[in-house]
Amino acid sequence: MTKLIFEKHIAEANTFELPPLEVPEVGLSETVPEHLLRENATVIPEVSEVELIRHYTELSNRAYGVDNGFYPLGSCTMKYNPKINEWASRLPGFAQIHPYQPRETVQGAMQILYELGKMLGEITGMDHFTLQPAAGAHGEMAGVMMIKAYHNKRGDFKRTKMMVPDSAHGTNPATANVVGFDVIEIKSNDRGLVDLDDLKAKMSDEVAGLMLTNPNTLGLFEEEIQEIAAVVHEGGGLLYYDGANLNAIMGICRPGDMGFDVIHLNLHKTFATPHGGGGPGSGPVGIKDFLADFLPKPIVIKKGDSYSFDYDRPDSIGRVKNFYGNFGVIVKAYTYIMAVGSEGLKDACQQAVLNANYLRYHLQKKYHIPFDRLCKHEFVITARNQMESNHVATLDIAKRLMDYGYHPPTVYFPLIVKEAMMIEPTETESRERLDSFIAAMDEIAREVRENTQIVLDAPHTTVIGRVDEVTAARSPIVKWEE
Amino acid sequence: MNIPQGLFYSSSHEWIKIEGEKVTLGITDFAQHHLGDIVFVEVPELNSEVNVGDSIAVVESVKAVSEIYSPVSGTIIAVNEELEESPELLNEDPYKNYIAVIEVSNEIETEKLMSAKDYEAYCIEEEKK
Prior knowledge:
The structure holds two protein chains of two kinds. By secondary structure, chain A is α/β, with parallel strands linked by helices. Chain A has 16 helices and twelve strands. Chain A folds into three domains: 62 residues, no CATH class; 258 residues, Type I PLP-dependent aspartate aminotransferase-like (Major domain) (Aspartate Aminotransferase, domain 2); 130 residues, Aspartate Aminotransferase, domain 1 (Alpha-Beta Complex). Chain A has a seven-stranded mixed sheet, sandwiched between helices. The model of chain B has no long low-confidence stretch (mean pLDDT 94). Chain B is an alpha+beta fold. The relative contact order of chain B is 0.25. The two termini of chain B are 17 Å apart. At the A-B interface, helix 16 of A face loops of B.
């Protein structure tokens, strides 16, 4: 195993000689109050430049992303990021501007903000977008704050609860809680969809709204969405759309037409901008016209051919991020949409759904599929067969997949399915690639029966083998000490 | 599976022991088994008021985070702080290692809870899902 950078420390390995100052030197103690000064030097490891480069290059070689191989992480849409997006975002006119520059010198950048908002509106059926939120959960917070502002503005202070289905992403109840709502869980029915009776029973004049992902985290479309919307709206609540799974319906149908009032998108999922460590993300929020006053300010407006910022918005929930969002990411998403066009977006969605169903059909032969019917962009399988025959769990199968060179899918989520593995192939994978993944899963199923221990001890080919997750969680060591 | 007689059980896998107006609450053996290795427990605040159905504690395992719901209304008069340092106690003996003691303010709705026998049947059904 590689040493930590702290363990590679060699005192004075990297001594720089700076030219003499051209101005008189002022000692720290003359300008900073004594109680704020350190007594001991900070512990910063010292290595030579070339050793530093080697250290991080070695670590970067271990990273695994979609550029390395198949990455079927459900509900995270780890789709390939076309490199043209990187080219566009690095153009000097985008990369080398400053947010404090005079507006007339950055009209092109403001045009991108304006037009991306319009394009996202057309794709989702929403009237206005803010591009400020830095990622999905941040977008959720901005969206739910607007729901709260809407009820408060009407003098309706009784609505202190937010409904969230039991299949929801964990961020949904977390967001509602952070914004100050009590969370009410809505049950799923035996088809894996929102239980309409439970929803009706729990809807009241104390409920601010329902946060819903459609298709849900089982990859299943909420077929009763119009009835769901009616129940929430008739009860005076608003409908919130978690956009994590937008890839499944993009270009086919629109949340705005289903009755959603507020929606967040993850540009780093649906619109092919980098995800995870390749981030940052971007979580635009779209709303219907009647919520426009509550949008974070400023918003970009267009008069004639010129773009400006409108700050005069007294009912705004305020700014949710410094400046105007993660602008480089916004340029990448804009580039993706322009490059593939509206037909391309629709095609991406259809291909993603086709790929998911192809995998589901072939994996059902060896693995249990709790909701085995036509899915959207993702589906859930379980290790039930392997548990019953050989006490092999989902975790073991996920670890063994790494030995076959695949990033494991999302495991143990959604919570309503035992031993869940949630698989989302995305549109960019070829049939040959899907076939090799199916072959690996079939091979693991065979190993479970014939060579169980090799699965239980996996992974074998990685730098670090099976991690003791329990000790890591119970007694984590989060700080380096000599 | 260990399901002691004399306790009442909820459908969300909490047990309660009733002694007059004092109710001791914890999670069942079924719950700890299905959660797996428990790595973190957030116990309720002492002297806080709870209503039936309120989430009063959080139990986190390597697999999932679960909220613990109170089947009674009242005031938290004792909490098992030991669980914060040693969450594994819930895996070792979930009946000895309670989560909280509640002094009830209303009549306990025992008809909405299960006996040991009913709970056993319920767990067998849950297992099949």
